[in-house]
Design goal:
This protein is an alpha+beta fold. It is built from seven helices and 13 strands. A hairpin with a 5-residue loop joins strand 12 (about 170-180) and strand 13 (about 185-195).
């Protein structure tokens, strides 16, 4: 469960955030939402696929860390073994919240930084402080807020990106079955990917439009991330051995 409250320098002047990566801090997850502006960094470490929300029918891109639920093959006793950690993982324990503005602004027009008081990273003894003794934001908090702003923009970016993919019929279901070194079978199910065949069939004007909007690069980054499936397989085999 989460308990988000608005972050203030009065209520949270002594709050610190532990940055270690471990199961105890909620990092044992199979996937994380990602955004086209970070695809270049994400694809260097993880496969990127698309997931269709069963309730809303909306698609969203996700970095994949494992084959099974609550499996993160990049997490070990030494921490998170990858050169890049997606923004949606790094954002914890913060979240953008909304509240009516002091001058009557609607809540959706007044985003605020909130913090999960039930997050195990929070304490008053060790970790990164949020405020200085003078009550100013620390560099860590400033960077965290910048990350939240990037995520806020990323949600809108995702929406338009997915609309472009669907308009050009570029998404298709993807299933992968893998036999590991010990003979066991693992699967990646319920994912979607970009159809390379349909991408090749797009006319020049459409490709130019996608490129001008910045989506052609994101498309190629997603396709390039297929190479990281091998990383998942190698890590899974190493874990089983």
């Amino acid at each position: 469960m989460s308990n988000y409250v608005i972050l203030t320098k009065v209520a949270h002047k002594d709050t610190k955030v532990i940055l270690d990566r471990s199961t105890a801090y909620g990092d044992k997850v199979k996937i994380a939402l990602t955004f086209p502006p970070e695809f270049r960094n994400v694809q260097a470490c993880y496969p990127i696929f698309f997931i269709k929300d069963g309730e809303t029918g909306q698609f969203y891109p996700a970095a994949v860390f494992g084959f099974e639920e609550n499996e993160n093959l990049f997490l070990s006793d030494q921490g998170w073994d990858a050169s890049y950690i997606p923004m949606m993982i790094r954002r914890h324990p913060f979240l953008i919240g909304y509240q009516p503005g002091p001058n009557g602004e609607a809540a959706e027009d007044n985003p605020v930084v909130s913090i999960d008081m039930d997050n195990p990273r929070l304490n008053t003894e060790k970790g990164e402080a949020l405020f200085t003794e003078e009550g100013n934001q620390t560099e860590y908090l400033q960077q965290s807020i910048a990350g939240l702003e990037a995520i806020h923009a990323g949600h809108e970016h995702n929406k338009i990106f997915i609309e472009a993919l669907l308009a050009n019929d570029l998404l298709e279901p993807f299933t992968l079955e893998i036999t590991l070194n010990n003979g066991s079978n693992n699967q990646l199910l319920g994912f979607y990917t970009i159809s390379e065949e349909r991408l090749r069939e797009l006319d020049g004007d459409t490709l130019m439009k996608l490129n001008k909007e910045g989506y052609l690069q994101a498309i190629h980054m997603q396709l390039a991330s297929f190479a990281r499936i091998r990383t998942l397989i190698d890590k899974k085999n190493a874990l089983l051995s």
